[in-house]
Amino acid sequence: MIRQFAAVALTLVFSSGVAASEAPPVDLEALDARLAEIIEAREVVGAGVAVFDLDGVMFARGYGYVDREAGIEAGADTAFRAGSVSKLVTALAAMRLAEAGSLDLDAPLRVIAPEIDFTNRFESEHPVRLAHLLEHTTGWDDIQPQEYRNFPEGTRLADGLADNPRSRTSRWAPGHYASYSNSGAAVMGRVIEIVTGQPFEAAARTLVFEPLGLASASFDQDAPERRIASYHTVEERADFTRIWAAPSGGLSISARDLGEVGRVLLSGGGGLISAQSVARMEHGQTSRAARAEAQRYGLGFFEWRAATGVWTGHGGAIDRAQAEVFYDRASGRGYALLVNTGGRGMPEMRTALRTALGAPEPRPEAEAGWHLPEGAAGMYRIINPRQEMFRIMLDLLQPRRVWQCGGEMCVATGFGGEPRRYTPMGGGHFFMTEEPFRRMSVIAADEGRFELVYDDGESWARSSRVRLLAPPALLVATLLAFAVGVLTLLIWAAARPFGVFRGSNRWRVWIWPSLSVALLGLGAGAFMTLSSGDVLANLAGPSLPGRVFQFATFGFGLLALTGVLAALSARDVRLFARIQAGATSALLALAWGWVAAYGWVGLTLWSYTPRIYGV
Hints:
Number of domains: 3
Strand order of the largest sheet: 10-11-12-13-14-15-16-17
Mean pLDDT: 90
Radius of gyration: 28 Å
Helix content: 40-55%
Structural class: alpha+beta
Largest sheet: 8 strands, antiparallel, barrel
CATH architecture of the largest domain: 3-Layer(aba) Sandwich
Distance between the termini: 31 Å
Number of helices: 19
CATH topology of the largest domain: Beta-lactamase
Number of strands: 17
Low-confidence stretches: 1-21
């Protein structure tokens, strides 16, 4: 394996050099003009851009202001917040320690850092290993809303890790699936502290920043000069959030220095780490999809295929600031891009940079005579959502349906969604027929199951139609039953003054499903309130809408069960009314049981223990 990765790394570096020498020159003047045009049109307060190749950073510039109120102009060496680009630096620090023999990426986390609290019911056979932390294959949820809140100055990594350990619950055996989690790199940062005996900020400076001469780079969020501005709009400044998980998102760095990080990796390590280590970072090993060459998330890296090339790097966002650093080996070029205004102009600038720098990937060849494997057609449900609490919505609204359509595979989302066609390219891999740079794979899993794996790491397992169709059918039946009930109640109320339905006493049985639905509607309204505006701020702690939602998830089911009992015991109510109200209450009670299976009964949205359903 070591020889294989060394060979891969050296081949990639060599081929990059050849491609770079043959690639047409970049019109940097035209690129600069295009970026300035986008920034003005999209009302971006400030941005930093760097362009690099194997030889160095060939263009670096700032645009606008890094702090408009203070009048501080953005320059090539002005630091911006870089968000999750931090993970790439954390991975670099870990690889340096691994090369020095101070860190073993295959070592179990429990052995290296027993004080870090996490839950893994598979630990005896499938322990959480250090490599899992950087490849997002621990099985953990992403950090929860309360962990995104502003933490006080002086908060250490150990303090943050102790804040909400229940989010670090392995939902499946570590090493099976990738699911993006900010906890992984944060825990790796704590491991680096333990190994080096230094605070993470100091270790990153010693291991990465100083050897590369990155004067602007820092993980220190407490220094006044590091409280870097960002903006919702050109007129509205965003609040500065001091996050506890600095190794996952606390980096601040200039465009020139971030471009230098990208150049070092593009060139095969640049003396900081070996080409073999760069290859290991670029290519994941620990997930089932990675082993099937179906997903490209490595150690602090991910691969992003586009019409303009195959880009390797990382992006990030924090407090309305966005950043990314990517390179394309085929052209031997890359870029760093940092924006401080809610991502405004980011897509357009990304497109301009990649169009100017990249080498379009040739259209892959289609496999002739392909047939979908027996047992692969059917319905699929997601395995690895980033946030477990939202699995219920994905199961309800977004199952996948797969079938063979001619010589291609068709995949439709939801019930009646327009299918997307995928062309087979051999080995169980497919490209989207209309957008060939988008990929998907069909891999055989345990017990003869099949899984769909998208190039962003999402995995979908084949499931029965009954399992996926029953919940929406139950909800539709419940809504129809209640609608019919409301209609009959209106008829009853209108007819009673004329002597019709006297003595039926329908209200005695219909009051309970009516209250149940009313409470359910109140809970839905509270949830929508929390999901509007600044969602993370709304969910960062207990609130009145949050408590209303929690109460509603308990109450609507209890009222429904009361309705079933009332329908069975109300002897002074006509039989038809009892059957109708009882059936509606029973359907509501079944819906309540379905919601409970996902852990939504009594759910506190701001702090959630992942409840695994059906994985």
